[in-house]
Write a structure and sequence with these properties.
five-stranded mixed sheet, 471 residues, single chain
Length: 471
């Protein structure tokens, strides 16, 4: 039998606070007042975790919904590729679309008959097999995704066809991983992977190259799955409407024969190189500006929340300063991505060539402002409203619940970080914000990369970005 343990860390009475407007419209003030009961965030109760005898972990979040979403994730991605990239990605494709066994074909026919939608996805650190169905077909969905995950019967003819599809994807100009020089991030992304990070082998293209895809065989796919798709490396996440006991018993029955322990990837202290680079790209008349900083790892929950707060406010500030005030025609994007392997804080925007230096100076001024003064009272109020709105919207989103729960458990992150935002935002004061900003936004350690048909002056970029006088 499975071992079940309810992880309910909703112990603080404060809960999620509704924000009530006080005072006149000229001086808006919001404060946390009424308690939002846990059942509003968790309509069916908080997520539960379960461990099967062979080590597979399961997380379930059941609530009243006509649909069920199941996500089976393997803690393996393109950083485990020992080729020139593409093996993890092709393994995911072949596991879904290139099966030869009778069982796989029968499950595929049932999925088509009952309109069960399944798919997959591969990132640098994990691979997911997903299915979305009406609640009464949840057991079939589970059978389908587990068979996709663990199935070893790969049809050679179908695999060759699938490889041609993947190679076609690689060749597309809008492939964001390799060829999208005309969009913010395309050529920049390649340069970052090659030069900014000191471990280039970990950052091979997820889709691979045409040559590396051609070299992949059914045997290499089976070997990859046998090495990495072991029970202790698998998370099953289910959210929405389903019979929990039935799903758990079925998962144990379907995976009873799966054994083994995965050799864990080495987690090394990670720090990027700091460079300033101006590239030429003939695909766009715009200048793309990318700024990157090292950020806190997911083990530091308070700093991660502070980083998300800074990211949200910077998006708002730069939108107002760059787009509304100056008329630059591309909205900036600030992002904080935390993980146990690498965490980054990035700013990406695209502006006209003539406005590029002005845009860069505006961005840098805002970074310095946060380092010196932190956030304003009104920005803190905005954050409370913003995060509460997002969490309340997520509370009934079946897809997001399963995805977030599964990924949090898979990566060893704090499953309840997203749940405690409204509580923990109040524990992050302006001193925390300023201290973190000073660590992240050290210009001697940050990276700046620009691209455009007209190259920006390397010397001027260096001077502006490093805060030095031009020689």
């Amino acid at each position: 039998m499975f071992v079940s343990g309810v992880q309910n860390r909703i112990q603080r009475d404060k809960g999620f606070g509704f924000l009530r407007q006080e005072g006149s419209s000229d001086s808006l003030s919001y404060r946390t007042t009424d308690v939002v009961k846990p059942e509003l965030i968790y309509p069916g109760g908080p997520p539960k975790t379960h461990t099967l005898p062979n080590g597979i972990n399961i997380i379930t979040e059941r609530f009243d919904s006509p649909v069920c979403y199941i996500n089976v994730s393997a803690n393996v991605g393109s950083i485990e590729d020992v080729t020139e990239g593409g093996l993890a990605h092709i393994t995911e494709h072949a596991s879904i679309f290139c099966r030869s066994g009778r069982k796989a074909k029968e499950l595929r026919n049932k999925a088509n008959r009952f309109s069960i939608k399944d798919n997959g996805g591969t990132s640098r650190v994990n691979t997911a097999y997903i299915a979305h169905s009406l609640r009464r077909f949840a057991p079939i969905s589970l059978k389908l995704v587990l068979d996709n995950c663990f199935g070893m019967d790969i049809d050679l003819v179908q695999l060759e066809r699938e490889k041609e599809i993947v190679k076609s994807e690689i060749r597309k100009i809008d492939d964001a991983e390799q060829h999208s020089e005309g969009t913010p991030g395309g050529q920049i992304n390649n340069l970052i992977m090659r030069e900014v990070f000191p471990y280039p082998d970990f950052f091979l293209p997820i889709s691979g190259t045409s040559e590396s895809v051609d070299a992949i065989t059914p045997q290499s796919i089976i070997g990859f799955k046998r090495k990495h798709y072991k029970p202790d490396n698998i998370i099953i996440s289910a959210a929405g409407g389903f019979d929990e006991e039935e799903l758990l018993q079925l998962a144990e029955e379907l995976t009873r024969s799966k054994k083994g322990i995965t050799e864990k990837r080495d987690i090394v202290p990670f720090a990027s190189n700091s460079i300033v680079a101006s590239l030429q790209s003939n695909r766009t008349n715009q200048s793309t500006i990318y700024i990157r900083a090292d950020a806190p790892m997911d083990s530091d929950e308070k700093e991660c929340i502070a980083a998300r707060m800074i990211s949200t406010v910077l998006n708002k500030r730069l939108f107002e300063k760059l787009r509304l005030n100056t008329g630059f025609d591309y909205s900036p994007s600030c992002a904080f991505e935390e993980g146990s392997f690498i965490s980054t804080f990035s700013i990406l925007t695209q502006v006209g060539y003539k406005n590029a230096y002005e845009a860069l100076e505006i961005i840098l001024r805002e970074l310095e402002s946060i380092k010196e003064r932190g956030l304003t009272k009104r920005e803190f109020e905005y954050l409370y409203i913003n995060f509460e709105t997002r969490e309340m919207m997520n509370s009934s989103d079946v897809y997001r619940r399963a995805e977030l729960n599964g990924y949090s458990l898979l990566t060893g992150g704090n499953l309840y970080t997203r749940v405690h935002y409204m509580q923990d935002l109040h524990s992050v004061d302006n001193n925390t914000i300023k201290t973190l900003a000073r660590k992240m936004f050290d210009r001697e350690k940050m990276t700046l990369i620009t691209t455009g048909k007209q190259k920006l002056s390397q010397r001027r970029l260096e001077a502006v970005f490093r805060g030095r006088k031009e020689v």
